[in-house]
């Protein structure tokens, strides 16, 4: 109790535990159904210029230890659109870059803000922050996972083609943070996942699969990406070299040469198959220009939808269900 005003100066005892969003497996299937519906509602309001101020006076802290365009703009614009405000921190312009322990940073930042989004390297760093945070923490990309992106991708698929359950999604390329997250999403939302990676770049189940086994058995592997694409409903890929792995660039260029989504792969998929890429893209490497800029590509909707799903996510973490 603060003797000056009688207001409690610590968190109330018995307050419900804070929920975080650190990987896709953190939410139940039912919660995803709610979030996807809520995101559609929030998007419809945005498109018709109807105010959606459910987070007035709330502050989002965004911490970036890696570069970003979409994640920054979508979280920042989204928070302002909900009536809240944003603090932007990077490794270079904060004490994080001068070795202040992540636990101490979490304790301080979460006393002054209401929700935190972090983009960093190891998932363990995000987990350590969350363990010492008083407020919800969202994964804005780690080496291991990118759950906000997959949430947007699934929303985008449903928007264009209806329910994703029972459909076939193909991952062409690196067994990276995106691929790991697709594995968990397939287990949660009941679609078939095919993964085609070059040898040596496979998904690591020790990383992707949760201790309870979520993600195991939710996918099939293909050594030939063209075979993987046969009859697919969605073909998706990502850069050959993710942030933090730049030293492997040359080796990866050689290893991934055949993992380029081209017109032949899209022709093997269903005629109404969609193409997605989380962006940024390298035309002529993981995807040919006529695919990413072609009629089956929904990459711009996919990028925009980051904002709509993350608005629903922040609202849910702070306020719970709204209907
Ligand atoms: N897709 C994605 O996360 O993009 P940014 O790296 O630009 O945030
Ligand atoms: N796999 C990529 C995604 C970028 C949004 C990376 O981690 O760099």
Provide an overview of this structure.
The structure is a single chain. The chain has 323 residues and is α/β, with parallel strands linked by helices. The chain folds into two domains: 16-145 and 304-319, 3-Layer(aba) Sandwich (Rossmann fold), CATH 3.40.50.1370; 149-302, 3-Layer(aba) Sandwich (Rossmann fold). Helix content is 39%, strand content 13%. The strands form two sheets. Strands 7-6-5-8-9 form a five-stranded parallel sheet. Strands 2-1-3-4 form a four-stranded parallel sheet, sandwiched between helices. Strand 6, helix 7 (205-208) and strand 7 (219-221) form a beta-alpha-beta unit. Helix 2 (70-81) crosses helix 12 and helix 5 crosses helix 12 (299-319). It is globular, with a radius of gyration of 20 Å. The protein starts with 28 loop residues before the first helix and ends with a helix. The model has no long low-confidence stretch (mean pLDDT 96). The structure holds phosphoric acid mono(formamide)ester and norvaline.
Overview in brief:
The protein is α/β, with parallel strands linked by helices. It has twelve helices and nine strands.
> Strand order, biggest sheet?
7-6-5-8-9
Q: How big a fraction of the residues is strand?
A: 5-15%
Q: What percent of residues adopt helix (DSSP H or I)?
A: 25-40%
CATH class of the largest domain: Alpha Beta
Rg calc? 20 Å
Ligand inventory = phosphoric acid mono(formamide)ester, norvaline
What is the approximate shape?
A: globular
What would CATH call the homologous superfamily of the largest domain?
Aspartate/ornithine carbamoyltransferase
Distance N to C terminus: 35 Å
- Could you list the spans in which at least 5 consecutive residues all have pLDDT below 50? none
By DSSP, the count of extended strands is: 9
Count of alpha/pi helices: 12
CATH topology of the largest domain: Rossmann fold
Largest sheet: 5 strands, parallel
User: Could you say which structural class the secondary elements and strand pairing correspond to?
Assistant: alpha/beta
Mean pLDDT over the residues: 96
- Which architecture name of the largest domain does CATH use? 3-Layer(aba) Sandwich
Number of domains: 2
Order of helices and strands: HEHEHEHEHEHEHEHEHHEHH
